[in-house]
Amino acid sequence: DEKESSKKSKDVKESEKAYVIKLKHFKLGSAKVNFDDKSLQSSSKTTIDKINLNAYNIDSRDEKWLKYNLSLKVNNKGEVKSKGSISHTPLKQKGTFELDKISLKEFTPYIQESAYLKINDGYLSLNSKVEYSLKEDKPDLEVDGGIKIEKFSLHDSRDDSLLVSFNSTELKSLNLNMFPNSLYIDEINLDSFYLDAEIDENKSMNLAKLVKVKSDDNLTKTEDTNITAQEEETPFPMKIMKFHVSNGNANFADFSL
């Protein structure tokens, strides 16, 4: 009986090992998702539609790679595209990731949770190559590409006064690494920017009054400043080779004099 039981157990284990899922092609076409975030003081609604996903050569075995391509629209304006390869065990990814004119003003409800700020306009574009893996049990992300923000304007939400605006900001040849941490930018171009800065009679700057002060009885000073020595010692070197500014304009007033 013991031999028969052992044989059955062995057969079960072998059958479990032999169980493999393979799928040659998975397709999702023209899908739509409506996201309503009511956790915010001012709820935020986001529509993601025209979701098209293709995945090829899906295999449940370890160290097997599948190929994918994805495209979708955000709030009927911006577009997201990505394609590349993914391995689920261990988790690895390499491919491209693109954003085309993603509207930034929809992020205003999130910013207003902690600041008196409102994005009136602005569009984000990104063109990048991305690679992700685990090194020494830590996530390692590398991004190579460029970022562009266009037609940006940031206002004080209390009186709708303009604080910062620019026609475009472009970060060229950006390289971001997360293990070890580093950020390299070959060139930044800032075009047609405006900044409004004022110091009042109490020597307080208008930009310093934008942060909302939250009172939380459950938050102690110890908890608020509880940063481990390891986090304090983790360096994040950043290098910018060139910074170009054109057509700049600023309004500065000091009423403390």
- Based on CA inertia axes, which overall geometry fits? elongated
How many separate helices? 4
How many extended strands? 12
Largest sheet: 12 strands, mixed
How would you describe the overall organization of this protein?
By secondary structure, the protein is mainly beta. It has helices spanning 2-18, 108-111, 221-224, 229-233, and strands at 22-37, 44-59, 65-74, 78-87, 92-103, 117-135, 138-156, 162-178, 181-191, 194-199, 238-246, 249-254. A hairpin with a 3-residue loop joins strand 3 and strand 4. Residues 217-223 have low confidence and may be disordered.
Topology diagram in text:
Blueprint: H1 2-18, E1 22-37, E2 44-59, E3 65-74, E4 78-87, E5 92-103, H2 108-111, E6 117-135, E7 138-156, E8 162-178, E9 181-191, E10 194-199, H3 221-224, H4 229-233, E11 238-246, E12 249-254
Parallel strand pairs: 9-11, 10-12
Antiparallel strand pairs: 1-2, 2-3, 3-4, 4-5, 5-6, 6-7, 7-8, 8-9, 8-10
The gist of it:
The protein is mainly beta and 257 residues long.
Give a quick set of tags describing it.
257 residues, 59% strand, elongated, 12 strands
